[in-house]
Amino acid sequence: MSEHSKTDVRVRIGPVEFKNPVFLASGICGYGEEYSPLMDIQKLGGIVTKTITPRPRKGNPPPRIHEIPTGALNSIGLENVGLDAYVAEKLPKLAKEKIDVIVSVAAEHIEEFDSIAETFAPLDGYKGVELNLSCPNVEEKALDHGRNPAFVEKLTRVVKNRLVDKAVLVKITPNVTDIGSVARAAEAGGADGISAINTVLGVDFDLATGKPVFFRGSGGYSGPGILPIALQKVWEVSRAVSIPIMGIGGISSVDDARKFFVAGASAVQIGTSLWQDLELPQRIVSEFEQHPEWMKKGEVKT
Amino acid sequence: MSEHSKTDVRVRIGPVEFKNPVFLASGICGYGEEYSPLMDIQKLGGIVTKTITPRPRKGNPPPRIHEIPTGALNSIGLENVGLDAYVAEKLPKLAKEKIDVIVSVAAEHIEEFDSIAETFAPLDGYKGVELNLSCPNVEEKALDHGRNPAFVEKLTRVVKNRLVDKAVLVKITPNVTDIGSVARAAEAGGADGISAINTVLGVDFDLATGKPVFFRGSGGYSGPGILPIALQKVWEVSRAVSIPIMGIGGISSVDDARKFFVAGASAVQIGTSLWQDLELPQRIVSEFEQHPEWMKKGEVKT
Amino acid sequence: MIGNTHVTVPGSVPPGRFSSKLLEKRDLSDRYYLLVMSRPPAFDDPGPGTFVHLLVPDGGRFFLRRPFSILGCDEATISLLIVEKGTGTQILRRIPEGTELDFIGPLGSSFPQMPGRTVLAVGGGVGLAPLYFYGTRAVRDDCDRYRLLYGARTRDDLFLDSFEWSVEGIAFATDDGSYGFSGNVVELADEELTRAPADVVFSCGPTPMLEALVELARSRGVPHCVSLENRMACGVGACRSCVVPVSIDGAESYRTVCKDGPVFDAEIIVWNELPRV
Amino acid sequence: MIGNTHVTVPGSVPPGRFSSKLLEKRDLSDRYYLLVMSRPPAFDDPGPGTFVHLLVPDGGRFFLRRPFSILGCDEATISLLIVEKGTGTQILRRIPEGTELDFIGPLGSSFPQMPGRTVLAVGGGVGLAPLYFYGTRAVRDDCDRYRLLYGARTRDDLFLDSFEWSVEGIAFATDDGSYGFSGNVVELADEELTRAPADVVFSCGPTPMLEALVELARSRGVPHCVSLENRMACGVGACRSCVVPVSIDGAESYRTVCKDGPVFDAEIIVWNELPRV
Ligand SMILES: Cc1cc2nc3c(=O)[nH]c(=O)nc-3n(C[C@H](O)[C@H](O)[C@H](O)COP(=O)(O)OP(=O)(O)OC[C@H]3O[C@@H](n4cnc5c(N)ncnc54)[C@H](O)[C@@H]3O)c2cc1C
Ligand SMILES: Cc1cc2nc3c(=O)[nH]c(=O)nc-3n(C[C@H](O)[C@H](O)[C@H](O)COP(=O)(O)OP(=O)(O)OC[C@H]3O[C@@H](n4cnc5c(N)ncnc54)[C@H](O)[C@@H]3O)c2cc1C
Ligand SMILES: Cc1cc2nc3c(=O)[nH]c(=O)nc-3n(C[C@H](O)[C@H](O)[C@H](O)COP(=O)(O)O)c2cc1C
Ligand SMILES: Cc1cc2nc3c(=O)[nH]c(=O)nc-3n(C[C@H](O)[C@H](O)[C@H](O)COP(=O)(O)O)c2cc1C
Ligand code: FES
Ligand code: FES
Asked: ∠ CA C268-B58-B138 to the nearest 5 degrees?
């Protein structure tokens, strides 16, 4: 198919339009620069950069990654350069490369989220923020907060109020009984979209030592093994809210991506599978350009 | 290793002792008779028969099983012969074959559980009951109940009071924020053990029709893909209670089984993997007989 | 409509678990191939209609075994006729001869013996296997006369050059008319029944074909045994995965294809609730 | 202890993603084998110490690529020296020549050029690869003198008969004394440094060996470049999976093995917090 006959696969999330519905997930593509020699990131809908926190974080002791037959467990622990370095060094580079950026942020208190939003409000070079309320690899209360609808609503409102013309997404945890109620809270707080899911809590043990493979014990499970769970959660979310959903979790093929749209998503993010298949994101873009009808949200009626 | 040098791998759950810690999971082995031509079920620790309900249940419309690359989804819907037929036809057969049986039961109301327990109290031919509070494939409130610690405690107490000399296990759902609190409730109610986990909620879509593969939509995810989640939940439960745990979920090798003991289990149940590997349960028994130290519960300190 | 007539189907026998060697693999057409594996001595003499539940030998990547009807079984071998459908049947086609195959069987019910009676068997696609198997044994006086109609898309799927058709009284139909009767095999069956009546109809094949045959057999007042397919897990009646809806004396329930079937009296099946497979 | 001396390590260059053909696979010993693959024209000239991140070609069953140091690279080929460790390296040993291999590279930092200086390189096991590569290039005046000590368990792991050792000034040590120096390669390094001092030590191998070498180099006041291993996911510095603890001017932080390393100044590593791999 020639450049000219490409169909329109743009996707709107709140006040912002993205060129297509395929993104790289937070934590996978660092701050964008690392993958630029290997792929045309500009051609994707965008990237969600590694979650940043108000101050730099050292992260968890290694080992941090563990392969299992159905995916991977990780225990990165939100290592990141911190807000200031991100704004000073990382964001300008991305803007220069014309990569559409969603900034992932996490913090412990609503005040911190507010001050992050305040920092970003006057800035250029990014199209949205994703509030990561769902990282399983940290000690802090952020995860518990992410399970508390009242907190989620308040937090979202505070951030959205400052970032009126940006896409504000809330990334929610699957490790919760009723994901719909958390999503509804985000919507009530003014979120422009929901990102689901983050990794699933999991653990593996090293039989040689009789200990968990990670220093911190449990880790985050990602990759093909979580696909049916991610589809389930996105489907639940789509019945709970009417804002757009970014479907995330276990996508390793074009068909996997399509299933998220059937489940009710309006866009997808690629995580773990990028490690083995660097062409996957672009392949999904191309195939959706050829079949824009696949973007129809929700169950196809037969 | 000769018959004679076999080591002692017995496991005690409440008032009952089982000859070894390897069981077949509920729903996998029907009422026992189906697999007897294919394996020496007598040599296993026991089997948990298909969950029965006060009245027969027709179950969900087919298709009921769906293969995915990391395991299977099912939507059986608790089809079963009902309490009366079970007691009249199924249980006597199992007793005759000298198979150690744990009866899996489910119901909607505490009164029903009570009357099931009353029916079983005077009976012989089984060593325990497993209260299935965790089947995701039914419309009824049972699943919600299984997430409610107060209900779980009360229910367990009612049943245990009637079945003093039997092993009363409570099978809990992984689809809950805090599995530890449900396990603690079961322990407080007098449970002799916890069975964890049941299947994980999941869904898959048929891209040809744009609909879920199952009539009821979601199904229960089992097999290798849920192993890290099952280990995580068992580990959480083992930190919450001190009664024995039956580890269930994704076991497809002897090493997988061992990991449940490291996580804190005292026994394991084999589900989905039996479909491909009919020797797995017996292989686990044999290897544990050669390495009884593997049964040491909890993390091996190095 | 002349009315519904019932027929009794022989039940399943206890199966065994076996490991046997792939002796021969032969492509019959673009989509069809033949697997011949060694017959383990303890493998019970299978009734026509029974099947084996075969593990795709791929390092445990497939969680569910695949069911295949027995096409033939002699003292030394068991043969399967397979059509490439998805990944499992693709991989089976690629494994080298000599590979160990893990299977359980024989599983399920059989087409009934009909001594002294005449049978019209109608097979579509791989639905041929159990009916062909019956045909190769019919010489043993299972029935008085056995006519087998086999319908396929096109001549290529009749593999006339690559397979020794050793069943007497077989007639072919192709959808595109490239060989034999031109048209649907049910139309051919209609003609056959008009030409020479039968005491019972056996059938196996795609659901639309089976449904059409149900109408036909009913309209002629002929009992009808059908072999069904469904997604399976255990294969032995334990997991209740493979059920189909039946109605017996007005009571609706589910029966397993793996143990109560695959061969059923067509009259008990609730056809409009059959799952797509 | 004479004291800690630092050395600067050349940083990594932007990598590419390639598909190339497996040209040759040769077993060198029980556990070791050689993979020679075609060099894609666009593959940058790799520094010794850099590695490729290789997808195990097994239908996507392995989620993480495997990192392997470059043993050699000429215009037409890239060679890897691999020891069978787990399933991935087992499968790589079994794939047929001609298989397409998907990899990214060259990745990571290199051992530094030391013009006019003498280098003592100490390799244990597959840690040989980058040091051997350096050795084959040392003729290009990367340094004045390059002595390579290679330690292995036993004579079989020196694959003297199956590999053309084309590096001058190499000496062998075997743990069981079956060839060359009898004992640990660090003991041999100690003797060598006594016999003839070096300006810098390069090392790659099992962590206990590296730790012993850290002590040795420190006690002689010689700077020390080490190549480390760690579990990797992305291979390009994006995911922060492969970090090792470093301490620079008293400030502790993590550096990635894939991008900041694998070659590090040994003095910045916090050795007692290194992960087991
Ligand atoms: C009793 C019985 C006898 C059969 N006999 C034959 C035979 O003789 N020759 C032959 O070629 N085929 C036969 N089939 C169908 C055969 O089992 C399927 O074509 C095969 O399982 C498809 O596997 P796959 O991996 O290639 O397909 P996929 O579509 O990739 O399989 C996905 C899943 O669906 C299941 N599945 C898909 N189609 C069917 C189906 N039609 N029936 C049951 N399960 C299915 C698979 O087993 C697997 O679990 C029979 C089925 C049954 C139930
Ligand atoms: C920079 C670098 C260079 C290397 N160079 C070589 C080389 O030249 N030759 C060689 O034989 N080996 C080398 N290794 C080690 C090699 O990567 C591992 O032996 C290999 O990944 C093991 O894979 P497996 O599937 O056989 O083992 P498994 O133990 O089954 O692997 C399980 C997981 O652990 C990872 N893993 C296991 N051991 C290691 C290890 N030592 N380092 C990193 N990841 C590991 C695997 O990549 C995989 O993700 C190097 C490692 C690094 C980091
Ligand atoms: C190594 C790694 C690091 C991650 N870091 C983050 C992060 O910083 N912030 C975040 O919101 N999600 C993070 N995630 C979660 C992913 O963005 C994604 O939600 C999850 O991996 C599921 O998608 P996948 O199965 O496609 O990988 C991380 C995942 C992995 C594997
Ligand atoms: C087809 C099928 C039917 C099941 N039926 C029941 C059931 O009736 N009662 C129950 O407690 N669990 C049931 N389960 C759950 C299993 O007992 C087990 O908890 C789960 O499958 C996880 O183990 P696995 O991964 O080893 O299969 C069923 C599972 C499957 C796959
Ligand atoms: S497949 Fe288990 S009952 Fe038929
Ligand atoms: S492997 Fe991703 S940062 Fe090194």
From this structure: 145
Bridge partner list, D52: D68
Q: Which residues contact B47 (CB under 8 A, 6 or more apart)?
A: B23, B24, B29, B32, B41, B94, B99, B100, B101, B102
Of B71, B226, B262, the CB nearest to A210: B262
Distance CA B229, CA C65 (A): 25
Which chains have 3+ CB pairs within 8 A of A?
B, D
Cβ-count burial of B208 within 10 angstroms (0-12 exposed, 13-18 middle, 19+ buried)? exposed
Quick check: C244 and C230 in contact, CB under 8 A? Answer: yes
Torsion of CA D4, D5, D10, D11, to 10 degrees: 30
Give the CA angle between residues B112, B116, B121 to the nearest 5°. 145
pLDDT digits (tens, 9 = 90+) for B204-254: 999 999 999 999 999 999 999 999 999 999 999 999 999 999 999 999 999
**How big is chain D by its Cα radius of gyration, in Å?**
18
Q: Locate all alpha helices (DSSP H) within chain C, ordered by sequence.
A: 87-94, 128-137, 185-195, 207-220
Determine whether the interchain pair D15/A63 forms a contact, defined as Cβ–Cβ distance below 8 Å. no
ipTM for the complex?
0.95
Ligand 4 center to residue A73 CA distance, Å? 24
User: Exposed, middle or buried: residue C216 (CB in 10 Å: 0-12, 13-18, 19+)?
Assistant: buried
Pocket test for ligand 4, best of B222, B229, B231, B280 (most atoms within 8 A of CB): B222
Instruction: Using the structure block, give the residue that is written with the tokens 């030409």.
Output: C195
Residue A301 confidence (pLDDT):
42
- Which residue, judged by its Cα, is nearest atom 25 of ligand 2? D88
Taking the C-alpha atoms of residue D70 and residue D51, their distance in angstroms, rounded to an integer, is 5
Residue of the nearest CA to atom 11 in ligand 2? D82
* Best CA proximity match to B175, nearest among A232, A172, A154, A278: A232
> Looking at chain B, which residue has its C-alpha nearest residue A230?
B202
Q: State how far the Cα of B69 lies from the Cα of B60, in Å rounded to an integer.
A: 23
- A33 burial level (CB within 10 Å; 0-12, 13-18, 19+): buried
Give the model confidence (pLDDT) of C196-254 as tens digits: 889 999 999 999 999 999 999 999 999 999 999 999 999 999 999 999 999 999 899 99
Q: Which domains are seen in chain A, by residue range?
A: 3-295 (3.20.20.70)
pLDDT tens per residue across all 277 residues of chain D: 445 677 888 877 788 999 999 999 999 988 999 999 999 999 988 999 999 999 998 876 777 999 999 999 999 999 999 999 999 999 999 999 999 999 999 999 999 998 888 999 999 988 999 999 999 886 666 888 899 999 999 988 888 888 888 888 889 999 999 999 999 999 999 999 999 889 999 999 999 999 999 999 999 999 999 999 999 999 999 999 999 999 999 899 999 999 999 999 999 999 999 887 7
Contact A106, A185 (CB under 8 A): no
Q: What secondary structure letter does DSSP report for A89?
A: I
Which residues between 128 and 167 in chain A have a beta carbon less than 8 angstroms from any beta carbon of chain B? 147
Q: What is the pLDDT of residues C98-130, one digit of tens each?
A: 999 999 999 999 999 988 889 999 999 889 999
- Alpha helices by DSSP H, D103-160: 128-137
Distance from chain centroid for Cα A35: 17
Residue D48 CB neighbours (<10 A)? 28
Q: Could you count the other beta carbons within 10 Å of the beta carbon of residue A290? A: 14
Residue B3 amino acid letter: E
Alpha-carbon distance of C25 to C92, in angstroms, equals: 9
Distance between CA atoms of residues C69 and C66, nearest Å: 10
Residue A237 sits at the chain B interface (C-beta within 8 Å): no
